Each structure stands twice: as structure tokens, then as C-alpha cells.
Amino acid sequence: MDRRLLILALGMFALGTDSFVVAGVLPEIARSFDISIGAAGQMMTVYTLTYALLAPLIATFAASVPRKQLLLAGLAIFVIANLGTAMAPTFAIALVTRALAGLGGAMFSPTATSAAVTLVAPERRGFAISIMVAGMTISTALGSPIGAIIGGLGDWHWTMLFVATLAAAAGLGVFILLSAIPMLPAVSLSQRLAPLADARIGLTLATTLLFFSGVFTIYTYFSVVFARAISGSPMVLGGLLVLWGVAGTASNLLTGRLVDRIGSRKVLITMLALVVADFVLLHWTGINLWTATAAVVLWGACGWGISVPQQHRIISIAPAIAPIVIGLNNSATFLGATAAGIIGATGIQLFGGQKLAYVAAVLVAAALIVSEFAARRIAESNRMESSKQSSLPSVTPTRVR
Fold it and tell me: Which of 12, 92, 95, 367 could form a disulfide with 135, with the two C-beta atoms 3.0–4.6 Å apart?
């Protein structure tokens, strides 16, 4: 394994941990600043919104900046921002530092992915990208639960210091191990956004947005939805988060084979339907630890497993511009997480934490409907393409005498 890829993956691990760890220490943050759980959840909202909006802009307008400088600058801002969050005297300042962390993440993440591609031979580029994705997904199985346990046993400020330490270690590795990183051809912002004009891509991205709005509505307010099963224990909370992340990581590894065998549409229908049912039943399954554990494992497996058929679908639509459409899909994921913070806070205020799962179930059901619309548009487009190909006149070669 190339050590340079591992260093970049460590940076992605730090970013992923920071994206999700706030959910695990939400009650502690709320008590610390004397605010509601819903208000505390906006710390995650601010981070994900800044990341989602700035990542494509920075990738476009900083295309001429040397890759190593951009990586180090992003990690430096990220470290400073998390230290700032840990020392923030007021909630308003904490929100500003979370936005700053989102800026650092937006500088690092797309740059790390593009750098990983240039550091390996062409035939290993898919592997390099998978290592970057693994860094992000493994953070849900290890980084976020560890951070939640640290915050629950000690103080949530130590959780932010933990994240800053991870990023600082990645920055040191980038400084030592990565020298000159080749530059990829620049892609304009209009080129990055052009695929949105394709209805098939637009519907696929809408599916991602709606689905992760629902999934992260539960995740952001995990400690509220599963309060009865957790009973205030940080170890139980951390353990459930570990199971959620492990189930998602395992599902990511297995779902690709399933997609190859039965196609993305059937996998998406199955997983989306299972998540809807899981969320509808959470009002009852979230009562005790055993049933809550089963619900969390199913949710984690389907929640992260859907990323594989979604990426497979969107790449199949536009294989020539795969990096661009994958980037748009990632932005849709983070915009979903952004919406979830607001939706969840509003849902808790209107319906209470125990009924928040119903709100999430409606969002996932909407994602299922939109996914089917996308599948139909893709099928119609494929039929039209096949019809055009079959209508072309065949040319019979003339025999030369």
C-alpha cells in the first residue's frame, strides 16, 4: 500500500469524523451552551452547508494552486477551526468555527481525491479513489463513535481536540511524504454544473438529497431518537454508533457485487423500502437496547449501502464525466445532511423527538418515488438510443472481383 494514499485517507478520516461526531455529543454541547438540542444540531448544519457549497467552487477557482499547498492550507484551517470550536466561549463563535472547519474540509477533500488519482498508475486509479472513500466511511465506524465516547466520558471539548489531532497528523504526513503532485486539467464551474441539465442526473441527485435528508435527520439527533434505549450512557451511545458504521462499511463492500448481479434499480428499491419500514417502526423498536440495535444495524447497512447503486447509476448515465457527476452526488449528500439539521430541529419542536422517525420516513419514501422516476427516464433514454442505433442503415460490404 502506498503510504501517500494512507496519509490522504487519514485526512479524509479526520474530515468524516468531524462531519458526524457532533451528533454523538449533542446533549453535552446543548448543556454547555445552555441551548436546545435542535439549536445545537445547527453546528453540524453549518459545517455540512459550508462544505457542500464551497467544495466545487474551490476545486474550480483554486485549480492553479499547487496541490500540496492547497492540502496543507486546508488541513491547517481545519485544525485551527476545531481548536477554535473547543475553546469557543459562546455558541455564536462555535458556529463561526464550524463554518471555518467546513472551508478547510472543502479545500482538502476534492484536492486529496484528485491528488490520489495522479499519484498512481492509470490502471490503479479506481483503487486510489476507493481508498479515499474508505477513509471517509471508516470514520463513521471508528472516528465518530470514539469521539462520542471521549465526549461522553470526559468533555465534548476533548472530542474536538481529538479531531484536530487527527488532521494535524495528516498534515504532518502530507508535509513529509508528498512532494510534487501532478496537476489535473482545470474544469470550469459551468462544466461542473452542466450535467444538472440532464433530467436523469437531476432526478438521481434529488434521490440522494432526499434520502440523506431523511437518514441524517435521525443521525444528527441520534441521542434524542434512541434516548430510551441509551438511557444516558455514553458507552451505549458509542456502541450503537460503532454498529451503525460497521454495518455501513460492510454493506459498501458487498453491495457492489449485488449491483453487478441484479442491477442498481432493484437494489435501490429494496434498500429504500427497508429504510422506510425501519424508520416507521422506530417508535417501537427504539424502546429497548436489543430492538434498537437491530434497527440501527439495518439502517446503517441500507443507509450507506445506497451510495454504491447511486454512484453506479450516475456513472452509467455519464461515464465520460464520472468525476464531475460523483462530485455533484457528494454535494447532494452533504446538502442532505445540511437540510437534516434544520428538518430535525423543526420536527423535534413540532412533534417531539420520539416521532422524528416519521418525518425521516416520509423523506425516504419521497426518495423512493423520485428514484423510480429516474429509473424510468433512464430506461426511456436507453430505448431511444437503441432505436436510433437499430434505425441506422446497415452497410453490406461490396465483394471485390
Answer: 12
Would you state the pLDDT for residue 306? 84
HEC string of the chain equals CCHHHHHHHHHHHHHHHHHHHHHHCHHHHHHHHCCCHHHHCHHHHHHHHHHHHHHHHHHHHCCCCCHHHHHHHHHHHHHHHHHHHHHCCCHHHHHHHHHHHHHHHHHHHHHHHHHHHHCCCHHHHHHHHHHHHHHHHHHHHHHHHHHHHHHHHCCHHHHHHHHHHHHHHHHHHHHHHCCCCCCCCCCCHHHHHHHHHCHHHHHHHHHHHHHHHHHHHHHHCHHHHCHHHHCCCHHHHHHHHHHHHHHHHHHHHHHHHHHHHHCHHHHHHHHHHHHHHHHHCHHHHCCCHHHHHHHHHHHHHHHHHCHHHHHHHHHHHCHHHHHHHHHHHHHHHHHHHHHHHHHHHHHHHHHCHHHHHHHHHHHHHHHHHHHHHHHHHHHHHHHHHHHHHHHCCCCCCCCCC
- Rg (Cα) of the chain, in Å, rounded? 22
Per-residue model confidence (pLDDT) at position 205: 94
The count of other CB atoms within 10 Å of the CB of residue 176 is 10
Profile the chain (401 residues) by mean pLDDT over runs of 10 residues.
Answer: 86 88 86 91 89 82 84 96 95 96 90 80 71 76 81 84 95 89 70 82 94 92 90 84 83 78 89 96 93 94 83 79 74 86 90 91 97 92 77 52 39
| Whole-number pLDDT of residue 125 | 67
pLDDT digits (tens, 9 = 90+) for 310-367: 878 887 888 777 667 777 887 888 889 889 988 998 999 898 888 999 999 999 999 9
| Distance linking the first and last C-alpha atoms of the chain | 60
Instruction: Calculate the CA 132 to chain-centre distance.
Output: 12
Backbone angles phi, psi at 309, to 5 degrees: -65, -30
Environment class of 395 (CB within 10 Å of its CB; exposed 0-12, middle 13-18, buried 19+): exposed
Q: What pLDDT is stored for residue 61 in this prediction?
A: 79
Are 118 and 4 in contact by the 8 Å Cβ rule? The answer is no
Angle at 254 between CA 252 and CA 257, to 5 degrees: 115
How far is it, in rounded angstroms, from Cα 39 to Cα 346?
A: 10
